[in-house]
Request: fold
Amino acid sequence: MILPTLKQLRYLVAVSDHRHFGHAADACFVTQSTLSTGLKELENMLGVVLVERTKRSVVMTPIGKDIALRATDILTGAEDLVDLAKSDGEPLSGKLRLGVIPTIGPYLLPSSLPVLQEKYPALQLFLKEDQTARLLNLLSAGELDIVLMALPYEMQGIEIIMIGDDEFEAVSHADGPFSREGEVGLEELTGQNLLLLEEGHCLRDHALKVCKLKQGEGGGNYEATSLFTLVQMVNAGLGVTLLPKMAIQAGLVRGTNLVTRPLKGTGNSRQIGVVYRKTSSRAEEFQILANIFRESLRQPDS
Reply:
């Protein structure tokens, strides 16, 4: 039996992802004619049409879609096989593709990456910052090795290493409703113009959960695209918000007229962890990486 080559499967997955022969060829670092020939050879071998070709568009056939999904799993498995061989030598060496969400990356990585570089100089780290859903899609497709994210989050086929808790604190202008010292009760958030990140950021969902609110409830008249923008909105007196403690400790509100107050009670935090594919062979390396992130999260207030 003649089997498809990994190169042919990579061409098919690239066309499925890009729906454009030229872009797919660029992604595979080959010419368009080379990619087209490789796909045709794959179709002849399998005896099915995988891609409908027209002058203006590329359409995957139903069987083409199914085979492209299977091909993604095969390619990911092949990469994991190579990683397994490499992990038998020096840990955390070679290429590592780390995804991180924007409400964690700027606040945890500055303290952890120098430690990682010092202890593991042979590591080639590639960072991708994006929202959780897109990062998990890249992880599933084998384009990322591990993701640093906030939990809980519904996932399948994923292993989780917990790092620690990141508490929320109530934030208002110094002349606002939280100007007095002491803890803020959740009831004190009632009636306030609660400003949050826009939908798609898991921090929004976690903040709503802390406030015991559902999507569409309790949000202010404005939604921010980043924590920095959120801070500027509160500093302008547009409302109040909840911020993760790691961002406050990293100096997010420094230089503003804002005050931060701890919340009363328990369960007022999000969990931080790293996740990776269950099929990955780098679990021991990821434990080392998680330990470095864990120590950075434990650093005392600056």
About this structure: Residues 122 and 197 are 37 Å apart (CA to CA). The chain has a mean pLDDT of 88. The longest strand covers residues 158-173.
